[in-house]
Each structure stands twice: as C-alpha cells, then as structure tokens.
Amino acid sequence: MNFKTWPLLAAVLTLAACNGEPHKSEETPPPAVTVLSIKPAEVTLSDDLPGRVAAFRTADIRPQVGGIVLRRLFEQGAEVKAGQPLFQLNPAPLKAEFDTAAAALQHAEATLARTKRQAERLRTLIDADAISQQAYDDAVSDRDLAAANVAQARATLERRRLDLAFATVQAPISGRIGPELVSEGALVGQSDANPMARILQIDKVYVDVRQPASMLASLKARAPAGQHATILGADGQPYSAEARVLFSDLNVDAGTGDATIRIQVDNADRTLLPGMFVRARIARSTASDEILVPQQAVQRAPDGHAVAWVLDKSNKAAQRQIIVGEVISHQYVVREGLKRGDMLVVEGHERLQPGIATAPKAWKAPAQLSAAPGAAAQQ
C-alpha cells in the first residue's frame, strides 16, 4: 500500500462520517402577540359639531347726549361693572340748560301763585254779584293753565337733570370692555354710527353649532328641557366648564336643512373668547352591550373588508371578517364578527398566519382609552 494516499483516504472517511449524521435544525419560537379579551360595554354615541363662541351679552357704548369727550375713565381691556363711569363729556352746556329749566320752573310756580290769589279774590266777588261770571271763569282758567305750566316746567327740569347725568357715560352691563373707539376731544352724539366702546359679557358664553334637522328629534327625546354637552378646543381637549344645550334657540336653514343649536357654557375663567373655533360634543344615543376594539387591531383585506385576528383556546391564530361602525376614542364599534370572550390580537398580527401557534400576553390600554372607556364622541 502506498502510504502517500493515506491522508486522502482519511479525509474521504471523515467526510463520509459527517454526511451520515442526521441534520438538526433549530425550531422557530412562536410569534409574540398582545391580546384583549372582548367585553361588551355601554357606549354613548355622540357627534362632534363645529361651532363658534359668541358673547353672552354685547353692549355698544353710545352717548345719550351730545358733547365733547373730556376724558376716558376706564382701563382698556379691563373688567367693568354695570353703572361704572366710562367717559366724561363736557357738562357745561348741559348745566346751562338745566339752570334755564330750573328758572323756568320758578317762573311757572310764581305765575301759579299769582293766579291762585286772583281766582280766590274773584270768588268772593262773584258771590256778591260784583263781577261777571265770565271774569271769574277767566281767572280760574288762568289758574289751571298756570298749574299745567308748572307741571311742564318740572318735567323739563327733570329731563335736563337726566341729560346732565348722561354727561357721564356709564356701563350698561358688567363684562370686559374693549379698546376706546373715540379719543378725548372728539365730538360725539346720539346719531353717531360708531360706538364709543364695546362691552362683552363672557363669564357665560354661547357656542353656536349646526346640526342636520333630522337629528333634532333624538336630541329632544333624550333631554326635552336641555342636555349637557362637552366643549372641545382646537386641540381636541375638552374644557371643564359646564355646557347646556338651549333648544329655544334652534333655527332651521331652509337652504341646507341644518339647525343652529345654541349651547350655553359657563366661562368663569374667561378661557373661551368670542369668535373662537371650538367643537361641541353632543350625545346622540346610548347603546348597551357594544363591542369596542382598538383601531390598531383592525386591518383591511385586499377587497376592503375589515378583518381581525383572534386566538382559540390553544392560542392558534385565525382571521375573521368583521363589520365596524363608528370610531369612539380611537376604538371601533364592532357590529358583527366578534363576541364576548373572544381573544382579540391587538399587536403583532403582521407575523400571523392562519393556524399558527402564538405566545400571547395581555395588552395594556393607553391612558386615553382607559380614562373613559365606552363613552366618547364620534370622530
């Protein structure tokens, strides 16, 4: 035997021995998924309607007498009280008219006193037939006319007293006053087109929203005398203020068929300002035993139908076609396809195939879902 061929023979035998050993492959672990046990709950279906904030009351400050504006008596943008002085007009012309009216009253009272004395003297003479009846009747008429002149002079004096008081322009309502719209030294009058300033009462405000008139029947059926609502800001966060629907302020637009709904909102902290865009969440109906599932648990099949993955008792995956309804707080309302007790796959379904075994663990709901489960607004 040629000893030079031994290394080659040894290599061939080693290779044959390796090929003869059985091949051992590593087993793939089951995919990890998070699951949720289906539990029906009571759900309040609501509508989020766009709206604008309007002041509870608005008052344009206008002068009741004409005059020159001497000074402004308020701080622009501040809160004012009803009856608080706002502007001071020049009172000198009005004071002169008041003095004239006071003098006219004195003259009328003096004339009345004279005519009374005259009529009293003539009354004794008429009894003695010393004067004619005509002369006595004229004296009585003069007395009565003088009394009427006194009453007229008193009314004129009272009017001049009011005009003098109106030289100080006061706030008709309490609220927040805006900037002055006339400057000191300006001549103002009752017929001016522009107000001197404007006061808005915003400790309570209105939110005017529009809703199809066909939905008003269900709204009235739930709360005939009024219904609570939730006001949402532009960022979607709710305001803590109490809001109530006012049915007395409904008005149907003949062109669009929409009704304007006025909502009264407490606004003690002045968070809502007139003209702001907000959304009003109004409850439409309440349903019991509704199934809510997180949005991420629902997928769309190529044909557009909604599908979801569920696990059986042996943790094997199966895909189901479902029918979904409204979206409530990032959750679908499932109309068909799921039932109480089903183990729904929420996360990890992208690695699933029908019949594959899984390693499930409980899904933890985010804070925004766990804070108010089963009751929210339609998105």
From TrEMBL:
GO biological process: response to antibiotic
Domain Multidrug resistance protein MdtA-like alpha-helical hairpin: 99-166
Cellular location(s): Cell envelope
Multidrug resistance protein MdtA-like barrel-sandwich hybrid domain sequence ranges: 57-197
PROSITE patterns (alphabetical): PROKAR_LIPOPROTEIN
Main localisation: other
Domain Multidrug resistance protein MdtA-like beta-barrel: 205-283
Family annotation (Pfam families): Beta-barrel_RND, BSH_RND, HH_MFP_RND, RND-MFP_C
Domain Multidrug resistance protein MdtA-like C-terminal permuted SH3: 291-350
GO MF terms, alphabetically ordered: transmembrane transporter activity
Superkingdom of the organism of origin: Bacteria
InterPro entries: MdtA-like_b-barrel, MdtA-like_BSH, MdtA-like_C, MdtA-like_HH, RND_pump_MFP
A GO cellular component entry from the record: plasma membrane
Family as reported in the entry's similarity comment: Belongs to the membrane fusion protein (MFP) (TC 8.A.1) family.
Full protein name: Membrane fusion protein, multidrug efflux system
